[in-house]
Here is the input.
Amino acid sequence: MTYTTVKPPANAPTAPGEWSLSQVIEALSKPLPSSVLETKKLGGRTITYIPWHRAVLVLDRYAPGWQFRITNVSQIGGELIMTGSLSIPTADGIITRESTGSEKVDTSGYGETAANAESQCFRRCCARFGLGLYLYQR
Here is the structure.
């Protein structure tokens, strides 16, 4: 799938730090086209989410120069827990927000335990800047 469904505004940033934090949050907080989203069954209900690889493309458009890193990995009981930080250069400086992601170590679902925890952590960090945040409110 090529990512052409979200057309950036004419004044979209082309270099890190061109937009203020409020401009980045405003752009990232807009609802995404349904073609960018996916659904999955979770706990007997269907949830809509933005896959990590599409979140990357949105950040590339509206937050050039962004960086994500895992800052901690631990296991508590049968859960792998990752903490990560997402930093976005803005006209107000580099703004960093953190979140966590977790996955059961003995997962029988799709994907690998660490990759699933990292994906969840990354998407949650993105939501702290507004990206897909409205999806959590359903």
